[in-house]
C-alpha cells in the first residue's frame, strides 16, 4: 500500500506547512520536498432543495459541489483524537454539514490508540457513527473486527472525482473502499525562529551535515538548537523515518515497513547512530533528554516561538500542522516562523507524510452522507481556510489556504504525481507503531534518554516488532 516514492503522515493531536517566507525556501519545497500525489476532476453542482446552493458559513466553499440529502432529525457521532484548534476547526466543518442537511452531529473526543478507544465503545454497544483513523493499519483492524462498513456510491463518486488513485487505494482493504482520506500532512519539515537564525548568522541547511553546522551556530549564539516533543513517542518515530528513508533508501524503507527485514539490520543501526549525533548532545535539546521526554508536542512548538529572540529552542521538527500551534503564539508564519525541508541524510531529502481517513462504523444514510461530504471539496475548503490543515483533495482551490506557505505546500502536494509512501509506523500493527508506552514509541523514547545504546534499542525494536507482526520477518 505505500510502496512508491515518498511518505505521508498526519498524527494525532498535532497532526496537522511547509516552506518558509523566502523565495529560496519556497522554491526548495516546491521543487522536491513534497513528493505526495494527487489527481482528480471537478464536482457536481448542488440544488436548492438539498440546501446546497448557499455559500458555506464560517468561510467555507463559495459554491457547493456535492448534493446532500435532507436528514432532519438524524443524529450522528464522529470520533477523532483531534484536540485544540484542530478539533475546533473540524467542528466548523461539521456545522456546515448540519446546515446543509438538518442533521445533528456530535464530536466525540477519542484517546490514543483510537482502535482501543473504539473497541471499548463497540463493546459497550455505543460505537460512533464515523471515526477518523490516522493509520492504514487501524482501518484494516476495524475491517477485520467487522466494525467498519464499506463506503457507498456517493462517497466513492467523490473520491473518484477528487482524489488520485493512490489516495483511494490506501483507504481500501482487500479491494473494497472503507476509508476516505480527509486530511494529509507533510512531516518532513523543520520550523525555525527566524530571529534566532538571523542573530546566529545561520542559513537553512540542505544536508544533515549542514544541519549540524546550523545547530552549532545557534548554540554558539546562546540559544538551545532543538525543541523535541519526546513525551509523545510518535514525534520520535517521525524523526527516525526521515533519517532512515533518506539514508537507507526507499527499497529498504519498504522492507522495514513490512518487517521483511529485521530491526536488527545494520541500516537501522546506521539511522539510530545518525540520530544520536543530535540526540546525544544534551545541550542541543531544550531541557536536555529528560526535559524533552516531559515535553508534549504542542509545547515543543510554542516554546520555540515565544520569548522573542531568546526562546527555549531555535528549531522544532514536525509537519505542516505545526502552524496550528504557532498560531497560539504571537509569531507569524512566513516572517517570525519559517521552515525548511528536512535535510538530506543520504542522496535525497526525505518526504514523510500521512493522513486521517473517515471510516463508517454504523451504516446509515446520514453516516454515508457525512463521509460523502468529507470527501468533497466543500468540506476541505472550509477547513483549509482556517489554517493548519492540508487536504489530499485535488479540487480544493489554492486560494482556500490562508498564506503563501500553505498554498505552496498544497500545490506541491497536488502537483507531485501519484507516487508516495505512507508513514512507516502508521503501516505497522497498532501494538508496535501506534501505542503510547509500547513498541516503537517506547523504544525510541528510551533511545532518546540513552542514545549510546544502539544495539540494545535495535534488539528491543525487533522483539516488539516480531510479536506485533506475528513472529519473525
From TrEMBL:
<feature type="region of interest" description="Disordered">
    <location>
        <begin position="43"/>
        <end position="64"/>
    </location>
</feature>
<dbReference type="InterPro" id="IPR050490">
    <property type="entry name" value="Bact_solute-bd_prot1"/>
</dbReference>
<comment type="similarity">
    <text>Belongs to the bacterial solute-binding protein 1 family.</text>
</comment>
<dbReference type="Pfam" id="PF13416">
    <property type="entry name" value="SBP_bac_8"/>
</dbReference>
<keyword id="KW-0813">Transport</keyword>
<feature type="signal peptide">
    <location>
        <begin position="1"/>
        <end position="42"/>
    </location>
</feature>
<protein>
    <submittedName>
        <fullName>ABC transporter substrate-binding protein</fullName>
    </submittedName>
</protein>
<dbReference type="InterPro" id="IPR006059">
    <property type="entry name" value="SBP"/>
</dbReference>
<keyword id="KW-0732">Signal</keyword>
Amino acid at each position: 500500500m505505500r510502496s512508491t516514492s515518498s511518505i505521508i503522515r498526519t498524527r494525532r493531536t498535532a497532526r496537522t506547512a511547509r516552506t518558509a517566507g523566502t523565495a529560496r525556501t519556497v522554491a526548495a519545497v516546491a521543487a522536491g520536498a513534497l513528493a505526495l500525489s494527487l489527481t482528480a476532476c471537478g464536482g457536481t453542482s448542488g440544488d436548492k432543495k438539498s440546501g446546497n446552493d448557499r455559500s458555506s458559513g464560517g468561510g467555507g466553499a463559495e459554491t457547493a459541489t456535492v448534493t446532500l440529502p435532507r436528514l432532519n432529525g438524524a443524529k450522528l457521532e464522529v470520533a477523532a483524537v483531534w484536540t485544540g484548534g484542530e478539533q475546533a476547526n473540524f467542528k466548523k466543518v461539521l456545522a456546515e454539514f448540519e446546515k446543509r442537511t438538518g442533521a445533528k452531529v456530535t464530536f466525540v473526543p477519542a484517546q490514543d490508540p483510537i482502535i482501543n478507544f473504539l473497541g471499548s465503545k463497540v463493546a459497550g454497544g455505543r460505537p460512533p457513527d464515523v471515526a477518523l483513523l490516522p493509520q492504514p493499519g487501524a482501518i484494516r483492524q476495524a475491517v477485520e473486527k467487522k466494525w467498519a462498513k464499506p463506503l457507498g456510491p456517493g462517497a466513492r463518486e467523490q473520491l473518484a472525482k477528487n482524489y488520485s488513485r493512490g489516495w483511494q487505494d490506501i483507504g481500501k482493504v482487500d479491494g473494497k473502499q472503507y476509508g476516505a482520506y480527509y486530511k494529509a500532512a507533510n512531516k518532513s519539515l523543520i520550523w525555525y525562529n527566524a530571529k534566532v537564525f538571523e542573530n546566529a548568522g545561520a542559513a537553512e541547511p540542505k544536508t544533515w551535515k549542514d544541519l549540524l553546522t546550523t545547530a552549532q551556530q545557534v548554540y554558539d549564539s546562546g540559544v538551545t538548537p532543538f525543541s523535541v516533543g519526546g513525551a509523545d513517542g510518535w514525534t520520535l518515530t517521525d524523526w527516525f523515518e526521515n533519517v532512515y528513508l533518506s539514508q537507507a533508501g526507499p527499497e529498504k524503507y519498504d522492507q522495514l515497513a513490512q518487517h521483511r527485514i529485521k530491526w536488527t539490520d545494520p541500516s537501522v543501526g546506521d539511522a539510530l547512530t545518525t540520530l544520536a549525533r543530535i540526540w546525544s548532545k544534551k545541550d542541543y535539546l531544550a531541557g536536555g533528554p529528560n526535559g524533552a521526554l516531559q515535553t508534549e508536542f504542542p509545547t515543543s512548538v510554542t516554546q520555540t516561538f515565544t520569548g522573542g529572540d531568546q526562546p527555549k529552542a531555535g528549531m522544532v521538527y514536525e509537519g505542516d500542522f505545526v502552524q496550528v500551534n504557532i498560531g497560539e503564539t504571537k509569531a507569524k508564519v512566513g516572517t517570525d516562523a519559517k521552515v525548511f525541508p528536512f535535510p538530506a541524510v543520504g542522496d535525497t531529502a526525505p518526504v514523510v507524510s500521512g493522513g486521517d481517513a473517515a471510516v463508517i462504523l454504523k451504516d446509515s444514510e446520514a453516516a454515508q452522507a457525512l463521509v460523502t461530504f468529507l470527501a468533497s471539496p466543500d468540506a476541505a475548503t472550509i477547513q483549509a481556510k482556517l489554517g493548519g490543515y492540508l487536504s489530499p483533495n485535488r479540487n480544493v482551490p489554492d486560494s482556500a489556504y490562508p498564506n503563501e506557505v500553505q498554498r505552496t505546500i498544497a500545490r506541491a502536494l497536488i502537483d507531485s504525481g501519484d507516487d508516495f509512501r505512507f508513514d512507516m509506523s502508521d503501516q505497522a500493527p497498532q501494538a508496535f507503531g501506534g501505542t503510547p508506552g509500547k513498541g516503537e514509541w517506547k523504544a525510541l523514547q528510551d533511545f532518546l534518554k540513552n542514545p549510546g545504546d544502539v544495539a540494545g534499542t535495535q534488539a528491543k525494536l525487533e522483539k516488539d516488532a516480531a510479536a506485533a507482526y506475528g513472529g519473525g520477518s
